[in-house]
Structures are given as C-alpha cells and as structure tokens.
Design goal:
single chain, 2 helices, mainly beta, about 425 residues
C-alpha cells in the first residue's frame, strides 16, 4: 500500500512539473520543396512561411548566439537533417548573421562556407506580416533531405541560440496542396493550419511524451493514474482504461467508453458492424475490415480510375467525359475524383485536369505514380495520336476518327 501511494504521488508530480524551454512560435507555411533531380550536388531544399496579421514576435538574437535549422520530410522514405548556423565572419570579412529584432534577421552563406544552407530570413513587417524563408543546396556540402516518394508531410524548425525562441513551419498530412514526382520532387503548398515541429521530450528527463509519466521509459507502474497518466495496462488507471500507454477517461453508463467508440470497450461486442471511427479490437469488428488504434479506420488503398472519351469523327474531336466518379474499397471508405472534360487534344492548363474532389474518411488522398508521378497516365489515343500527361491532364496529339482513354492513380492513406 505504501509503495502504491508513493507511485501515485510520483505520477502526480511528473504530470504537473512544467518543462523549462524557450517558447515555440508556429508560423503558417506557404511552401516546402525538396528536389533531387539527378546527382547529390543538384539537391535543393527550400521552406517558405508567410503569416498575415501574425501575433508572433522575434525573441532572441542569432547575430550573437547563432541558430539551428532542422528540416524533415516524411513519407515512404523519411529524411531529416539539422543544419548549424553559427555566427562568424565569412572569408570576405562580412558576418553570416545580420539584422536586429525590429528589422528582422538574415543569414547569408552564399558560398556554403559553413554548410549547405545558403540563406535564412526571419522578419516581421510593419503591417504585421511574419515571414521565414530558408534555402539549402548540395552544390558544395551534402543535403540529406530528399523527396520521400511518396511525401505526406514536412516540418522546418528554426531555433535561435542562447535561449531564444524557436519557429515552427509545419506542413501537415492532408492539408494544402501536395505534388509528388517519385524520388525527384516533393512539394507541399499553402497549408491552412499551423503546428509545432518541436520533438516530444525524450527519456533523459524521465518523460517519454508530454502526457505520459516515466512508466514508458522503464520506470515503475504508477497506480492509480488519472486521465493523461502513463500506463502499461488498465489496472494502472483510475478509469480502468489504458490505451496506447495513456490513461483515458471512461463513462460506461451509456454503453460508450469514449465519445466516438461503441460499448465494445465496456465489455460489449461488435460483431462486424462497427462503422468508421467506432471502437474495435479486431479487423473483423469493422465494416471497413480494418481496426487501427482501437478504432475502425479506412486502410491505405491504391485506386485506379479509367476514363474513356467519346469517339471523334472526321471533323469533330473526341472529348473527355468530365464530371465526377467514385470508387470505394470498403463501406465508408471511398474517394471521389474530378474527371477532365473538353477535347482530348487540349494540353495541360488549356483544359481541366484530374483532381481529388472528396477523400471521404481517409486522412488524405493524392495522385501517385503515372507518367509524371502525379497519378495521370495516358492509355490510348485515336489513330496516329500520341498520349501524354501535363499538369495532371491527359491528352492525345490527335483527336479525330477515334477515341482515347487515360487513368488516374490515387493513393489514399489511413
């Protein structure tokens, strides 16, 4: 009993103890791009953030304390690199860092004397627009951040030294516009939400995640822990509900453990009829046939849409059908796309293109593979016609005396 009381007290102390670190100020991302067109010396990474009427301020001074820039690109083959940006004097006698908190700060290393990062700019204008821009190239020193093939999300974190604040530019999965071109390019633009790029605490301070105790770092059980405390099994929690190593709240009076789960978690059953986001134990509990993290989800799926034009005549060009079409992999798991319309010999932006109309219950859906890595793939054309894709629009060099067909390959993620 004495040991249990001590463990409970330790749990409360760990959960209540504040973490001492400089503040992180998220910024709204405008563009993230990493390119690896051929050889390593051609690699490029750039990050742009632009936030109007921003409440953020510049805290810290890289002119005296330097900074670090951490960039990561996530997907099938994630990569991350930390770039040190210390203060110093270049070979031409000029400083790497210049500026102040009012005019903003700029880092310039055009000849890559200190590393691959050529420029960084942190600035807040008089009208309240806050910008952060950074660019690195592999021309002199190696850049290890490469297109993740397929890229899903990215982050850039500028940390000012000497206790200054950090600035996060997050490009979240399923937000904004994403372009993947196999291993050659990943571009993520115009996200609408902000987020932190600061990694969660490590076990060095006895805390694995901000809402968990040192039980997850090899410490003793902490019983009884309230909601948010760390746990190994349900007996560690006052709610008798341990999920993913964290104590969760419980209310079984209405047969529901959490607001989006069924009574399966309160001792009931779910014989294969649980809908999307309802509670589950096995894949067979779900209409979607996929149980992930205790909830019914839509499993990753690769869809292939095929469209056919009408038949062109001697004088009338064949046309793509336009409109929308839908495919489903399981109940509640579907994606709807927009089909191109107009003459099939219209190229690129001269006509409309394949695009995602609705990604249903998936976290994100995007064009994948195909001729340019954006999902568009020509299949057939009228006689003497040659098929191609540009800006996700399929086209044929000839549109008379026959019909054409094309495919749109769509990757949807859980």
């Amino acid at each position: 009993m004495r040991l249990a009381s001590l463990a409970a007290a330790a749990c409360a102390v760990l959960l209540a103890a504040p973490m001492t670190r400089a503040a992180d100020q998220p910024l709204l991302g405008n563009q993230f791009q990493t390119k690896d067109p051929s050889t390593p010396d051609k690699r490029k990474v750039q990050v742009k953030a632009r936030e109007k009427a921003s409440p953020n301020t510049i805290v810290g001074n890289p002119v005296t304390n330097g900074a670090t820039l951490t960039i990561r690109a996530n997907g099938n083959t994630p990569t991350q690199q930390v770039f040190n940006l210390p203060q110093g004097i270049k070979a031409n006698g000029k400083p790497y860092w210049t500026g102040d908190a009012i005019k903003g700060f700029k880092y310039n290393d055009g000849k890559s004397e200190q590393g691959p990062v050529k420029t960084v700019q942190l600035k807040k204008s008089g009208n309240g627009t806050f910008t952060l821009n950074a660019q690195a190239t592999g021309k002199v020193l190696p850049v290890n951040v490469t297109p993740p093939n397929i890229g899903t999300d990215a982050c850039a974190l500028l940390q000012i030294g000497g206790g200054g604040d950090s600035y996060s530019v997050q490009f979240a999965a399923g937000n904004g516009t994403i372009v993947n071109k196999t291993t050659k390019e990943y571009t993520h633009k115009k996200v609408t939400t902000q987020g932190t790029c600061v990694p969660l605490p490590t076990c060095s301070d006895g805390i694995q995640n901000q809402s968990e105790t040192d039980i997850d770092c090899g410490g003793p059980n902490c019983a009884p822990c309230g909601p948010g405390g760390g746990c190994v099994d349900s007996s560690d929690c006052t709610s008798n509900n341990c999920q993913a190593g964290v104590c969760q709240p419980v209310s079984c009076s209405d047969g529901i453990e959490n607001g989006d789960e069924t009574d399966i978690d309160c001792g009931g059953s779910c014989p294969g009829d649980c809908a999307f986001n309802q509670g589950c134990v096995l894949d067979t509990d779900c209409q979607t046939a996929h149980c992930s993290g205790g909830l019914c989800k839509c499993e990753n799926h690769l869809y292939t849409f095929t469209i056919n034009s009408n038949a062109g005549g001697v004088f009338d060009s064949a046309e793509w059908p336009g409109g929308t079409t839908n495919q489903s992999a399981a109940p509640g798991c579907s994606v709807t796309i927009n089909r191109p319309s107009g003459n099939i010999d219209l190229v690129g932006v001269l006509g409309d293109a394949f695009s995602i109309n609705n990604d249903g219950n998936y976290s994100s859906c995007f064009g994948s593979m195909g001729e340019d890595g954006d999902g568009c793939q020509p299949v057939s054309c009228p006689p003497l016609g040659i098929g191609s894709c540009q800006s996700t629009r399929p086209s044929c060099s000839a549109a008379l005396n026959g019909s054409g067909s094309a495919q749109y390959i769509v990757q949807c993620l859980e």
